[in-house]
Amino acid sequence: MQNARTSSVRRDVTRWHERMNDPCSPIALPQFRLLDEAQCERIFRASLEVLRRTGVRLHCPEALDLLRDAGATVDDHNVARIPPRIIEWALTQVPSTVTLCHRGSDEAALHLSEGRVYFGPGSDCLNYLDPRSHQIREFTVSDVVECIRLVDALPEIDFVMSMGHPRDSGVPNVFRHQFALMLKHTAKPIVFVADSREDCDAIIEAAATVAGSIERLRVSPNLLLYAEPTSPLQHSRSALEKLLCMAEHGLPITYSPAPMMGGTAPLSLAGGLVQSCAEVLSGLAIHQLKRAGAPFVFGSGLHPMDLRTAISVYGAPEFQLARVGVAEMGRYFGLPVWGYAGHSDSKAVDEQAAADAVVSVFTAFLTGTNLAHDVGYLESGLTTSPEMIVLTAEIIGMLDHIMSGISLDDESLAVDVINRVGPGGNYLTDDHTIRNLGSQWEPGLFDRERLAAWIREGRKHLRDRLRERTLSILDEHAPLRLPDQVEATIDEILLPR
């Protein structure tokens, strides 16, 4: 297995938005667009009107004071009505790029900027689809560790989240326990969740211990907090305290609401985008008022709600349209974008799950979503499947190759080569073929053999090869571990006895 420090496959849609508008580009890239600049502006102005007229309710005195001092109106019900100039100011302060590094290193792993797309799993699923028994059961600590090791081994998966909420942790704070496990078992960047400001403080202290100091962690962060406002148009005390903590330390955060269209957001996609932007931008204003220039990632988990079941669905076409809209609004604001990919409403790694994974990964690529999480999610986010992660990694590799486009330089146009081989010749032994042997994508799971070869290999279906591949990684991959004394210090900070 490759070491996580060297295994990341760099997917750069190579400033595709610029090339899309450059007729002289030497590379032709796949293109997709939903909103033009004027349409993004219309959504933005509608969001500003919501913040000016309706406002947002905040359950945190410090956040209210920051907005009040900046010129917002705060009523007796803790509703802040925010003038557009505060939002526009915040957008001029926040950086347009965020860099995440490998654990304990200044080596950059992820450059969150336009055109760069990275994938990772999700957090805190209650259920685990065991790849050995194929039974769905409650998550355990050992399952979380196995999932982290799996992500560490797969070059197509770029960052880690906790994936499961273990029921047998035996510690009072499962979020700190999850972070300790991630910090110990992978060198890849970590997106973490936390319950409180105190959790954030402890997690930052542990990460700073590995980095060498809080200053080094700030310059070369290997962590990013995922936190959420509460739709519609509310910010809980814990969410705001976490937001303010990350701003205070100058560490990156994505502050991404999860409104359900028809439930906690308008049923119309445009209305959902307007409300989502209002929720995120009000958080951004507070964040920048606390520390101008602190890193921030734009995102919204705008879901359609199935009105028959009240389930927040992941496989709906409306969800993918929402992903496109959110990504384009993030780019309009000049911010890195948080999104979703590699998930399904299916309860098994089946044809539905594969179709959902393909559509969602392709959407993430085409929209330039910088951090696409939830790879491996089944049952609308209740179950994590290691096999779904491995299948999605294969899909990422294939679609990454499609997104690399077609080179149009002289070498690729091959006019001299065609002339040299001539009518009736062949290219099999030509130097041009030899030079380009590594240009084709090679599958790891998908089968291209003829029937006779497939029969000789035991008539294995994709599900059989997928299970073998998954179990092989779980049984064999050993992540790069930290020194024993460092791991002991992490436990002292995050898991005190």
Features:
single chain; 497 residues; alpha/beta; TIM Barrel; 2 domains; 7-stranded parallel β-sheet; 4-stranded mixed β-sheet; 20 helices; 22 strands; globular; disordered N terminus
User: How do the strands line up in the largest sheet?
Assistant: 7-19-18-15-13-11-10
**What average pLDDT do the residues reach?**
93
- Using the coordinates above, name the CATH class of the largest domain: Alpha Beta
Structurally, how many domains make up the residues? 2
Main sheet properties = 7 strands, parallel
The first-to-last residue Cα distance is 35 Å
- Under the CATH scheme, the architecture of the largest domain is Alpha-Beta Barrel
* Low-confidence residue ranges: 1-21
Total DSSP helices: 20
What's the name of the CATH homologous superfamily of the largest domain?
Trimethylamine methyltransferase-like
- Give the class from helix and strand content and strand pairing: alpha/beta
Fraction of helical residues: 40-55%
DSSP, total strands: 22
Rg result: 23 Å
The portion of residues forming beta strands comes to 5-15%
| Coarse morphology | globular
Multimer state:
single chain
Q: Provide the CATH topology of the largest domain.
A: TIM Barrel
